[in-house]
Write a structure and sequence with these properties.
Number of helices: 17
CATH topology of the largest domain: Rossmann fold
Shape: globular
Strand content: 5-15%
Distance between the termini: 77 Å
Radius of gyration: 24 Å
CATH superfamily of the largest domain: TPP-binding domain
Strand order of the largest sheet: 7-6-8-9-11-10
Structural class: alpha/beta
Bound molecules: thiamine diphosphate
Largest sheet: 6 strands, parallel
CATH class of the largest domain: Alpha Beta
């Protein structure tokens, strides 16, 4: 019944357009409920031929030694996520900035020092903008190149894909806790920051002008409900900024390095492997072998934000929509199949368990190369670092907080892996972890790193305190001339 089919196709087209499926609306997830009638397959005679052809094609593919992925039209990977691909850049800035990166070897044992590059020539004016560039999720590599071109300090979240180059401020979250942030008069905002309260506080200040660079539609932007001044190109932002205050970048750079050195020393004074140690090793491993990094929500992406020294570019994918712990395993498989590149996922145990079903790959389907680096603290560690942890310090509430927020479990990851046919390793030291990372990333493997939630609050207090003390000391010796 061709008429019915045409009508159904037209109804579907209209529903898709109304739901945002056409090119004029912002991209983002769309949920469509399609009411299908029996017999659930095309019913015209010629379509049976189509079905038979399709089945024959599938059979031919499956008969090959290694099954080929079926070329679905939706298997598209946003190339802007790959930091060394600047072709999607709309900034109009020269394309060679930020290409000269050093890749250094995976190391074990400690969090090594950042490279601390010389910033090179900067604009010199007696006064000028005291601006910073904030690159949130999805900002893209152009944000790093813009910061460098403008001579501005760059704060780049791991999933910005702008966390590289000479302008990135190390340990920026710690620097943003200090008085230096009061001097910021402009933020050039690219992408959507989701990780730290310090950034949110800076963006909300009435005395801070926010220039939001928005080259194309983004799903989170609500017209008329935001205070930022929207600009469509980096060039526009550059013109609105005017000259940058002399010495401004250098001050941020040096303060960041002071904070980061102290953080590293303090972190390395603990004999055990912690989230930040693993985060650093994961970032370095991805920089070295080119694996795409999928960053799990909760502590893992924040540990990366703390210690992934922004000297080496890494392609990062993270589900920062509403920062869910769901769907991360499936995301990793999609990234692997869509890019054809190996994937290294850094995630917490609950994040893995929440989406364990996605480990199931059907018989004959392609298996992507994925390493799941799981920080197993047998529950939700992040809550210990937040206000919940403070409440739990009162022993009257310890048990309740543990039950409802710690949500402890005793799932055996080796058994889980065995059930799904996934390889399993355990790493208890940085050296063991480095040895696993040094081997080629092939097939699927869970690397379990058992850690303890109990000391997390104190540990983070210690490293943040050390970082901020050192940065404060540097600023006291090098005061800002207001
Ligand atoms: C789908 C979903 N449910 C609940 C939450 C709330 N939540 C945020 S972090 C977290 C705990 C995550 O635990 P884990 O993955 O082990 O990481 P850790 O906190 O230990 O770093 C939870 C439940 C969420 N973000 N997403």
């Amino acid at each position: 019944m061709p008429d019915d089919q045409d009508a159904a196709a037209e109804a579907l087209r209209q529903a898709l357009a109304a739901a945002g499926g056409d090119a004029t609306t912002a991209p983002g997830p769309v949920h469509l409920n399609l009411a299908l009638r029996d017999p659930l397959y095309p019913w015209a005679e010629e379509d049976h031929v189509f079905l038979k052809n399709w089945a024959e094609d599938l059979a031919a593919e499956l008969a090959e030694d290694r099954p080929q992925p079926i070329a679905h039209p939706w298997a598209v990977f946003d190339e802007a996520l790959v930091t060394d691909n600047l072709e999607t850049d709309t900034s109009g800035l020269p394309r060679d900035i930020g290409r000269n990166f050093r890749i250094h070897d995976v190391h074990g044992g400690s969090i090594p020092a950042p490279l601390g590059e010389n910033p090179g020539k900067r604009p010199t004016t007696p006064d000028g903008a005291r601006a910073v560039v904030m690159a949130g999720d999805g900002a893209g590599p152009a944000a790093a190149r813009f910061a460098e071109e403008a001579g501005l300090p760059l704060m780049a979240e791991p999933s910005s894909n702008a966390r590289f180059g000479k302008s990135a401020v190390h340990s920026y979250q710690n620097v943003l806790e200090l008085d230096i942030v009061d001097y910021v008069d402009t933020v050039v905002l690219v992408g959507r920051p989701t990780l730290s309260r310090q950034v949110a506080a800076m963006l909300q200040r009435e005395d801070v002008r926010v220039l939001a660079v928005r080259p194309g539609p983004v799903p989170w932007f609500e017209e008329g409900r935001r205070d930022e001044q929207v600009v469509n190109t980096f060039q526009e932002a550059l013109e609105l900024l005017g000259p940058v205050r002399d010495g401004w970048f250098e001050l941020w750079e040096a303060t960041g390095i002071a904070a980061c050195d102290a953080l590293r020393t303090q972190a390395n004074s603990t004999p055990i492997l912690t989230g930040p140690h693993v985060a650093h090793a994961v970032w370095d491993a991805c920089a070295a072998d080119g694996a795409v990094l999928v960053a799990g929500s909760s502590n893992p992406i924040r540990d990366l934000d703390l210690v992934a020294w922004p000297d080496d570019p890494v392609a990062v994918v993270a589900n920062r929509g509403v920062s869910g712990i769901d769907g991360t395993v499936a995301t990793a498989h999609g990234v692997g199949l869509g890019t054809g590149r190996p994937v290294r996922v850094f995630l917490g145990d609950l994040t893995l368990l929440h989406d364990a079903g996605a480990l199931l790959v059907g018989e004959g389907e392609e298996v992507p190369d994925i390493q799941f680096v799981v920080l197993n603290d047998k529950g939700g560690g992040i809550f210990g670092k937040l206000e919940h942890g403070a409440v739990a310090e009162d022993e009257r509430y310890t048990g309740t907080v543990e039950r409802f927020f710690g949500t402890p479990h005793a799932v055996s990851l080796p058994d889980l892996c065995a059930a799904y046919g996934v390889e399993y390793s355990e790493a208890n030291t940085a050296i063991e972890l480095a040895a696993i990372f040094a081997a080629p990333l092939r097939g699927r493997r869970v690397i379990e790193i058992p850690i303890d939630r109990a000391g997390l609050r104190e540990f983070h207090k210690g490293i943040r305190g050390a970082a901020q003390d050192a940065a404060r000391e540097y600023l006291a010796k090098n005061p800002i001339k207001a």
